[in-house]
Specification:
The chain has about 300 residues and is α/β, with parallel strands linked by helices. The protein contains 11 helices and 11 strands.
Length: about 300
């Protein structure tokens, strides 16, 4: 598989945008890496990179070649996984992109369950927003994505989707904590602590708040659900999270989660998906099956936005 090493060199330069940085990551000299790139360009008869003062930028030919490299690498990984599976080893790496809400409890539990049966399988998890998650699928940096309220893309194939309502999370001694449910307008008397724009739950909250006449005070914005939960535990602020990110085992005794009344339509779709047309490695496919079964048992809302194809 010596040619795969050369392809990896090209891919690393494309990711880093710099010969020096790529060489450091690959533990080779910049001059040796430069020669390798030049050899590939000579074989192809075209330049793969524009050499700029700011670094290395892919040409149009380079973009096409990188897509081919990543497709080949993914196919090789799938075949290696199948061979390992035939021998009973079940080795492999499962690469997952997931939303913030899934990283604290649901996904670690599912990974632990899978690892107990398949100890030779390794996991690489990227916690990110739904836009970046789809990008990771396209770049073959992730096998599957588990994200809340993703946009519809023609190359994103849903495998399973369930409805999730947004929950209001607050300190256990908050003035609203004794209620059973809340209308969103009930939260207007208190500061809100929300995820940054770009996260699915924030997009839903913004849409509902912008459509109403009640003004809200967004006092804190962050890219971490964990930070927001810890913050509201010590203040009168309220944060919003989907149900799987507001489980009692996750919140502990210092926090209370209340459902937002369905009349406010504060709900969306949690979607497990992959790059359309890609054959997943065996380990990734089996893990996706496990998560699909688990999500199916956890349905709480009818699904309107997404349906598996």
């Amino acid at each position: 598989m010596r040619h795969m090493r050369i392809w990896r060199y090209v891919d690393e330069v494309a990711k880093a945008g710099s010969l020096r940085q790529a060489a450091e990551r690959l533990n080779v000299t910049a001059s040796a890496l430069q020669r390798r790139i030049q050899d590939v360009e000579a074989d192809l008869g075209t330049a793969l990179f524009d050499r700029l003062p700011s670094g290395m930028r892919l040409t149009a030919a380079g973009e096409a070649f990188i897509r081919w490299i990543r497709t080949q690498a993914a196919d090789l990984e799938r075949v290696q996984s199948q061979i390992a599976d035939l021998s009973g080893l079940r080795r492999g790496v499962v690469r997952i992109a997931c939303s913030q809400a899934l990283a604290a409890f649901f996904l670690p539990r599912e990974v632990a369950r899978f690892s107990s049966d398949h100890p030779l399988v390794h996991f690489a998890v990227s916690v990110t927003d739904h836009i970046r998650a789809v990008t990771l699928l396209r770049e073959y940096e992730a096998d599957i994505a588990l994200v809340f309220q993703p946009d519809r893309y023609p190359d994103f194939e849903p495998l399973m989707a369930i409805g999730q309502r947004l929950m209001a999370i607050m300190a256990a001694d908050h003035p609203l904590a004794s209620r059973d449910t809340l209308r969103l307008r009930d939260c207007a008397d208190y500061p809100l602590a929300l995820l940054d724009r770009g996260f699915g739950g924030r997009e839903i909250a913004d849409r509902i708040m912008d459509a109403g006449s009640v003004r809200f005070d967004i006092g804190v914005e962050a890219n971490s659900s964990e930070f927001l939960r810890n913050y509201v535990a010590h203040t009168r602020a309220i944060t919003l999270q989907i149900e799987l990110g507001a489980l009692p085992d996750l919140l502990g005794p210092g926090l209370k989660a209340l459902p937002i009344d369905d009349r406010d339509e504060m709900h969306g779709s949690l979607v497990l998906g992959q790059l359309r047309g890609r054959n997943l490695p065996v380990a990734a496919a089996r893990f996706a099956d496990q998560v699909t079964r688990r999500l199916d048992r956890m349905r709480t809302l009818p699904l309107a936005d997404f349906r598996p194809r």
